[in-house]
Amino acid sequence: MKMKMLPWLEFDIQVEILKRLPVKSLIQFRSVCKAWKSLIDSSPFIADHNNVSQDHHLMIRYRPPCWQLGSEEVKYVCFVDDDDDSFPQNKFATPPVPPIPPSLYGSCIIDTSCGLVCLEGYVPVQPDGSSKTRMVVLWNPSIRKSIAIVVPNDAPSEFHPFVGFGVCPETKDPKLLKISYKDDQDPYQVMVFTLSSREWRCLSSSNQFPHMSLIFMTYSQTVIGRFFYGLVFDGESYLIWSFDLSTYEFRKVPVPDSVRQSYLSMSKLRESLVLIDDKKGYSSTDMHVFDVWMMMEDGAFTKQFTITKASIERILGFRKTGEPVVEIEIEIVDDVTTALIGVYEPFLDHIKDLGICRSATFSVMCSYNESLLLLDHDDDDGCIEINLSQLNGIGNIGFEMIIPLVSYQTVIGRFLYRFVFDGEFYLISSFDLSTEEFGEVPLPDSLRRSYLFISKLRESLVLIEDDNGYPTTYIQVFNVWMMMQDGAFTKLFTIKNASVGRILGFKKTKTGEPVVEIEILDDVNRDSTTIFCLRTLLRSHQGSWDL
Amino acid sequence: MSKKTLTLMSKDKQLFNIEEHLAVQSVTIRNMVKEDGASSVIPLPRVDSETLALVIEYLNRQQAPEEDEDYVKKFVDERGEIPTLLELAQAALDLDIKKLMDAACMKVADLIKDFTLEEVREALRIENDRTPEEEKAIRDEFQWAF
């Protein structure tokens, strides 16, 4: 066949072709000519490209076994989620490590939206660990680029603010939602960050979060279209709220009565919100039976199917085909459970092994479509942007599926100790600042369920146990435990004083006087909290305060 | 009522007849018919006769709507040469026949996605307007992709 000579190719048609190329080709083709680079790097093209369907991927984050506490690396594996039978052959053997700050501790995946993976963790600001910054990293694995965003935290540290993430589908602007809770009288404070403005803004009072619940399920959030969905637990039953990423309006989403008191998690199946009701719940006797409820167009939930298979321990998410990706616990060695990850094929009643074996830490799955988002973001004010080249070999990023607690860390010698909460128990992780190795400090059983703070007294790690726990009673009782040379904890003393609200730390003096916070209710401003640094005698309960 | 026929004229002055109800799948032609009745010949000065013949073959297809997606895919697959596809895509863009344009561009994208830079330039007739040093600098921003 004769070659036709094209005198030129209209730029319009070049744009149409480029729009349909996979991300990796576009990254290469930036070098074809000047016009292509400016096109591919331009925000309208990046947004437009995101509207043309791109490869769908499943990403699984896990810790491989060979159980040595804390020393395993977090691994990421991606699968191309094709409709055809090639799944799961098409897998990225060594997917790129997210270029996140090397010291992002306790990082976990919040969610994915428009090709971006949102991770959250903490970065110590002072070398001694006395102050730290909460940080969110937006990571585009397809172009291996990420941006770190500082999350402002002005709420009292004991209330872990909730952070949500979603990309507005109309503007392709990544947005973060922060909900912090102050106290029973105050409404929730809601702030929104948009990457286009690079600013956190408080939402006006008309867009307040419905004052209804205390416990945010950080790892149960999902973005569908322009709605962000969050799952909350009010102590008795589950509630779902939605947040409109364009209008910033909150709404309650009705949950079927029959599942409100179940053991629920939220996920996404194709582009629909699903609730997974684990019938087994917290009991350890029966096998798991999962009811999957899907939200229909009218907003009501309908039970779609039930997954009953004895070996399935957890559902991580769903493939595009609707097949669940599951964890199967395989063995228990020295109280350590490991699990295989596979895809359950309901019609064959068979679990297809994905070749992943995790350690005791739960794995996390998310799905994303390839996208160019963040390609147009340069390193400038407000955000710290990190290139992969600077951060080769970063692997140890702390514990996952564990709630990191804000001001619950301290540095003693070359060890950074931090508190984590696995949903049931407190744990203390140690991080060796020289060797960058993680470890775990065993806690006395009696403390593992208490309401704890970490602190330091002279050069020893101390735990402050709030004996009153969460409900506010009149007299605060604090037990102070110290870690001895052998690593065991011993109760040092008890502080009982009606006016002490919180112990902030200890003076370095021999007596180790606590620095405390006293709440003062004055008539003018009822909610004001004043911090006093006081000298007090540990042995004296009357506590003659001198300022 | 007899079906009305339109006459389209290619760049090289060849004439093609097509029934009006089929021709108006092209939004461009539909607008022209609406504006002046288009009783005379419609000139398409940017589309050559070979390409126009293809476009007309596509417009004349007798597919059930549910098979249309597969048909258009197969239609462009059978014309897998990049130069032909580019002409077809260009004509479909000019004539505003969205499905054909989508399919032709998708096919080109599929063919070139694993090309080297030089192959892409040759296939799409694009001149490299950078020095080798400049090119390398841009490449280095995303070394992993090469």
TrEMBL record, chain A:
Highest taxon of the lineage: Eukaryota
Any Pfam family the entry gives: F-box
Residue ranges of every copy of the F-box domain listed in the record: 9-49
SUPFAM superfamilies, per database record: F-box domain
NCBIfam families from the UniProt entry: F_box_assoc_1 (TIGR01640)
Protein name from the UniProt record: F-box domain-containing protein
Species the sequence originates in: Centaurea solstitialis (yellow star-thistle)
Phylogenetic lineage: Eukaryota, Viridiplantae, Streptophyta, Embryophyta, Tracheophyta
UniProtKB/TrEMBL annotation, chain B:
Occurrences of domain SKP1 component POZ (ranges): 5-62
InterPro entries registered for this protein in UniProt: SKP1, SKP1-like, SKP1-like_dim_sf, SKP1/BTB/POZ_sf, Skp1_comp_dimer, Skp1_comp_POZ
Gene3D superfamilies named among the record's database cross-references: Potassium Channel Kv1.1, Chain A
Coiled-coil regions listed: none
One Pfam family of this chain: Skp1
SUPFAM superfamilies linked: POZ domain, Skp1 dimerisation domain-like
Keyword Lipoprotein: no
Alphabetized UniProt keyword annotations: Ubl conjugation pathway
One of the GO BP terms on file: protein ubiquitination
Record domain SKP1 component dimerisation: where: 98-145
Pathway assigned in UniProt: Protein modification; protein ubiquitination
Quaternary structure annotation from Swiss-Prot or TrEMBL: Part of a SCF (SKP1-cullin-F-box) protein ligase complex.
Function: Involved in ubiquitination and subsequent proteasomal degradation of target proteins. Together with CUL1, RBX1 and a F-box protein, it forms a SCF E3 ubiquitin ligase complex. The functional specificity of this complex depends on the type of F-box protein. In the SCF complex, it serves as an adapter that links the F-box protein to CUL1.
UniProt similarity note: Belongs to the SKP1 family.
Descriptive protein name: SKP1-like protein
